[in-house]
Amino acid sequence: MSIQFYDRERELEMLNGVARSSRAELVIVYGRRRIGKTWLVKRFLELNPGVYLYVEGPSVKRFLSSASKRFGVEFRGLDDFLKHIFESSARERLVVVIDEYQRISRELSPKIQHYWDAYASSSRLKLVLLGSTVGMVERDVSYVGPLYGRATRVLKLTGFGYSSARLMLEGLSEREAVKVYSILGGTPYYLALYDKARDLRSNLYRLFLDLGAPLYDEVERLLTTELREPLRYIEVMEAISAGRRTLKEISDYVKLERTQLKKYMLTLERLGLISRELNAFVKTPPRYRINDFFFRFYTTFITRLKDYIELRQVDYVLEEIMGRLDSYVGLAFQDICLMELSKRLPGYMVASYWDREGNEVDVVAVKGRSALIFECKFGTLTRADAKLLKGKLRLVANKLRLSSAKPYLVTPDVDGELDGVEVLSLRRVVEEGLPP
Ligand SMILES: Nc1ncnc2c1ncn2[C@@H]1O[C@H](COP(=O)(O)OP(=O)(O)O)[C@@H](O)[C@H]1O
Ligand SMILES: [Mg+2]
Predict the structure, then answer these.
(1) 62 in any annotated domain
(2) Is any ligand 1 atom within 6 A of the Cβ of residue 152?
(3) Cα(352) to centroid of ligand 2, in Å?
């Protein structure tokens, strides 16, 4: 099976620029486990010669011995190693990548800082450090901190957007691809685990429920390496998944004082797992969303049904998930549309509309005093949808004092017209962009 490489054009372009530059560069690439850091640099090294060093564990000695082998030079200490790479790149460019850097950042960072200050102006070394979020930003922040100030580029790697994920899922229908993305999110590793030859149900079984299923404990595992009290954070995400989206609602749900809760929310935000959505149109409290669909799915279904899974009542769990999947995917679809539409409406202010009276519109794009108004529907479209949208259009036009507004209904795969409302498919939006 040939394995393909997707997305990451901008990241590769940035790294290629680093490789071509004639001065010393210190690049930090960080992101969650499985997000594609190693693959990105492997690809980069196919295009640019360089040395790849993988830190197997916290032992500096071990790192030095594998570095010695790679360079064919005996390094007795980190000073030897750093001196060598900085000096041998005085005239010629040298790319050195250190993967899983966080494992020895405590020892290496202060030294890199020292050598960087002494050599950077006379060297063409391109030092690329890869690490998982925790080690790089949270726990060892005091060790990496000084490097941040010196880094010439800092790249945070995040998951794929829908348009890249659907390329990995090629062969599935648009509706299936939306479903799978709503469940697995943009992490390339999870998407690569999806078996397109089987149906969704058996994939859910194989990935989440079977004994030893690869994603069964994934969120707990990720959070345990990142945080001390993973359960608290899971509860917070469960609250958001259950539709409690303001700080007050979340605080009531998890029974934590708002001041205490804020601490957890901030950490989740810093890890990029949730984000705070300010109301772009009306004054309301901000609301929170879980950014990656994998975490949403997991805290909507898996953590809540853990007891049954542990008791091996797997058929029951599958029925539960399948029974509620359509409404889950319906909400996810709105968010996918919002993200994909925002990317394709330059010059517009694109956001969801919600107000205190409980009115909601999936996507509103405003430019000056005119707007495009989108309702996104995963299920079958009916006349009632068109009617409802026209009503919302009047409401929003009034509230935002618009001089003109055009309504659209967005579906996964149907284009056309319904009662005078243009119907757009997500497929068309992603493949061709918006009609003029
Ligand atoms: N750009 C990509 N295109 C296709 N698959 C990818 C890509 N990046 C990562 N993957 C898949 O995800 C898996 C995990 O990626 P990896 O780079 O090892 O993650 P990390 O180093 O961040 O933990 C890879 O083995 C591969 O299957
Ligand atoms: Mg890796």
Answers:
(1) yes
(2) no
(3) 36
Q: What angle do CA 226, 239, 181 make, to 5 degrees?
A: 70
**215 shares its domain with 152:** no
Ligand 2 mean position, distance from CA 220 (Å): 19
Residue 380 CA to residue 399 CA, distance in Å, equals 29
Q: Are residues 71 and 205 in the same domain?
A: no
301 shares a domain with 196: yes
When pLDDT is averaged across residues 201-214 and rounded to a whole number, the result is: 97
- What total of structural domains would you count in the chain? 3
CB of 41 sitting under 6 A from ligand 1: no
Identify the weakest region by mean pLDDT among 63-77, 146-160, 234-248, 343-357.
Answer: 146-160
- The answer to whether residue 3 sits within a structural domain is no
Beta bridge partners of 53: 98
Tokens of 348: 């517009």
Residue nearest to atom 27 of ligand 1 (CA): 189
Type of residue numbered 245:
R
Ligand 1 within 6 A of CB of 253: no
- CB of 7 sitting under 6 A from ligand 1: yes
What is the CA(32)–ligand 2 centre distance, in A?
Answer: 9
Q: End of a domain among 127, 156, 185?
A: 156
Give the residue from 289, 319, 338 where a domain finishes.
Answer: 338
Q: Is 189 in the pocket of ligand 1 (CB under 6 A)?
A: yes
Q: pLDDT digits over 258-315, tens only?
A: 999 999 999 898 888 999 999 999 999 999 999 999 999 999 999 999 999 999 999 9
Ligand nearest to the CA of 33: 1
Neighbouring-strand partners of residue 354: 360
Beta-bridge partners for 398:
none
The CB of 12 under 6 Å from ligand 1? The reply is no
Alpha-carbon span 175 to 177, nearest angstrom: 5
Sign of CA dihedral 216, 221, 222, 224: positive
Spatial contact of 403 and 369, defined as CB atoms under 8 Å apart = yes
291 domain residue, yes or no: yes
CATH of the domain at 383: 3.40.1350.10
What is the residue range of 362's domain? 342-432
Q: Where does the pLDDT of residue 145 fall: very low under 50, low under 70, confident under 90, or very high at 90 and above? A: low
pLDDT of the residue at 177: 98
Could you tell me if 292 and 159 are in contact, meaning their C-beta atoms sit under 8 angstroms apart? yes
The pLDDT value recorded for residue 141 is 44
